[in-house]
Amino acid sequence: MPLSKITAASITDNSVTTAKVADDAITGAKIENNPTIAGNLTVSGGFIPSTSLSTRNIIINGDMSVAQRGTSSTSSNFQTVDRMSVGYGTISVTQSQQSLTSGSPYEAGFNNFIRMANTSTSSAAGAYVQLYHPIEAQHIANSGWNFKSSSSFITLSFWARSSLAGTYYARVNTDDGTAYYRIKAFTLSADTWTKVTFTIEGNSNLTINNDNGLGFQVVIIPHYGTTFTGSNASTTAWFTLVSNDYFPDFAQNWSNTSSATFDVTGMQLEVGEVATPFKHESFGDNLQRCQRYFAKSYSIGTAPAENAEIGFTYTAVSLSGTDVRVPFVTFPVRMRAAPTVQFDEPAYPLTGGSANQWHYGGVEQYDTPSTSISKDNGFYCSATVAGGSTSNAYWTSGEWTANAEI
Asked: Which of 63, 200, 250, 342 is most buried, most CB within 10 Å of its CB?
């Protein structure tokens, strides 16, 4: 039989043994890319991956499981799912964390997704809706991706579903120096989860600093009106923005579709040309990564708000008759930068407090604390209350949130 006629079916099982294969006869060049091995694979030497396996997903909270601020909001920006900002213009959108109980993402281990729901309609050219995930520059600069090289790659993957069938877009862009944009179109059938993969090459024009500022953005877009679309947007290469043309024109109009929904989960950004299975992590580990950007004194399941729950209690010391100070309050983890601290009134049985005020026991007074020192690991605060005595200790009850989002 000619060698060209030998097929896999012509070779009986176990007929080619190790003894029949010469040393070094099978080289890496003879093995196809991305081979699938049906049985177990045992490596007698060291297993050396081309990229790190410990922190493969650069995106934080890509499984949408952490929602410290709440589970539903009609406001824009960071309001529900941690690290996921929903932006929109000329229409109204409700963003929410939703539960998964079936479907392909659920079978892949996901239990939550973020939803954008259109609660009005608009055909305006300036209408837009987007899901935005900002990334610290140093997380890209130290990821192992040679972003200056066109032969080095990162890969974005996620699950998406829309009630409106059509072609949508994902975008990544740099922020340091001259902003460069790279986009990908993807098609969704109505009400059907679809896995989207976007492999992105480096480019010698990119600038990404090694600092804790904004360096890279991942954006998934249900709709951009024609104010933000046009022929200057490239779908095949990095480009700089011309005439606000972020994308080609959208074929469908999600913003002008009543009650339209758009869902996303399983967002992963990793070094390499291939989208690997999602790096699931424990809720606690995921929460700690989120707390670098947002932390709170409230219980994990309580959305921050005035009178939301009984306040966290601290010891306070009066430095003078009216100046009462709370010792240093430590954050759960070091934050990205010194945050903006907001104070909320606790749900305490006594009456007389107002928004943002804490209760001071012993003198039975309410006052709004002020942050005297805010650092990346905690803060001092003080208040002016009547009836205190110098050097006396009191207790104070209140709640706080700390925001260090990019």
From this structure: 63
Q: Tell the residue number behind the tokens 């005439």, with chain if given.
A: 243
Q: Which residues contact 170 (CB under 8 A, 6 or more apart)?
A: 156, 158, 183, 184, 186, 196, 198, 218, 219, 220, 221
The lowest-confidence range among 150-159, 165-174, 369-378 is: 369-378
pTM for this one? 0.88
Q: Over the stretch 298-344, which tens digit does the pLDDT of each residue have?
A: 999 999 999 898 887 787 777 666 778 888 999 999 999 999 999 99
Quickly count: other Cβ atoms within 10 Å of residue 74's Cβ. Answer: 12
pLDDT tens-digit readout, 340-362: 999 998 886 555 678 888 887 76
User: How far is the C-alpha of 79 from the C-alpha of 76, rounded, in Å?
Assistant: 7
CB 156 within 8 A of CB 118: no
**Secondary structure string (H, E, C) spanning 1-17:** CCHHHCCHHHCCCCCCC
Please provide residue 136's backbone torsions phi and psi, each rounded to the nearest 5 degrees. -60, 140
pLDDT at 31 over 90: no
**CA dist list (Å): 396 to 191, 212, 353, 378:** 51, 34, 13, 17
Report angle CA 91, 93, 95 to the nearest 5 degrees: 160
**What's the rounded Cα separation, in Å, for the pair 218 and 90?**
22
* Closest-CA residue to 84 (of 39, 135, 33, 26): 135
**Taking CA 182 as the corner, what is the angle to CA 181 and CA 184, rounded to the nearest 5 degrees?**
140
Q: Which two tokens stand for residue 166?
A: 């059509």
The answer to whether 280 touches 63, Cβ cutoff 8 Å, is yes
For residues 115 and 98, the answer to whether their CB atoms sit within 8 Å is: yes
